[in-house]
Structure formats: C-alpha cells, structure tokens
Amino acid sequence: VAGAWGVLMGLAPILQIRTILHRRSSADVSVGSMAVLLVGFALWLAYGLSIGDGALIATNVTALTVTATAIAVTLAFRRPRRATTAPAPLPG
Q1: Which runs of E-coded beta strand occur in the chain?
Q2: Residue 91: its pLDDT value, please?
Q3: Helical packing angle, 31-51 and 54-76, nearest 10°
Q4: 15, 46, 72, 82: which has the fewest C-beta neighbours closer than 10 Å?
Q5: Longest dimension (CA), the chain
Q6: CB 59, CB 5: distance < 8 Å
C-alpha cells in the first residue's frame, strides 16, 4: 500500500502540468519548491539503489521523472519579463 501511494504521490505533479498547459502560463508555480523536491527524490532514489529496495526505487524514479518534467514545463511556459528601458534623455 505504501509503495502504491508513493507512486501516486510521485504522479501528483501531473496535476500541476495539466493546469499549466490549460492556462498556458506557469507564473504562479514555484520552481524552487519543485527543485527542493527533485533533490529529495534523487537522494531517496540513491538510498533505495544502495540498499536494493525496489519500492523506494520505483516510487522515486516515478517522482523524479514527473517532477523533472513539471520543472521543464514550468520553465517552458514562463512569460519573459518585459525589458525595461531607460527613458529617453531630454534634449538640451
């Protein structure tokens, strides 16, 4: 049950991806929080690999893949910031 729930948790960012694609914007998505999760999943995956735990490996491969995809989609749908230009100098 825990392994299955872990896979479902790993798939959860798909909901965010779906929202980004629907809105065509990722302005309200925190890349930083997803990056923290990504590092955590990578560390748990490394631990799972080191002890040969299939449940840890499966859940964290899923989570790592989906979260990396969510970060890529988030960055792809970031609207570029408008360039600010200095006002033209006054004549004279």
Answers
A1: none
A2: 72
A3: 160
A4: 82
A5: 77
A6: no
The mean per-residue pLDDT over the stretch 13-41 comes to 94
Q: What is the pTM of this model?
A: 0.79
* Owner of token pair 């960012």: 13
CB 70 within 8 A of CB 16: yes
Cβ of 45: how many Cβ atoms within 10 Å?
19
pLDDT band, very low/low/confident/very high, at 92 (cuts 50, 70, 90) = low
Residue 78 has which token pair? 């970031």
- Tokens encoding 39: 């590092």
**DSSP-derived secondary structure letter, 90:** P
Please check the confidence at residue 22 and state whether its pLDDT lies above 60. yes
Contacts of 18 (CB under 8 A, 6+ apart): none
Distance CA 66, CA 72 (A): 10
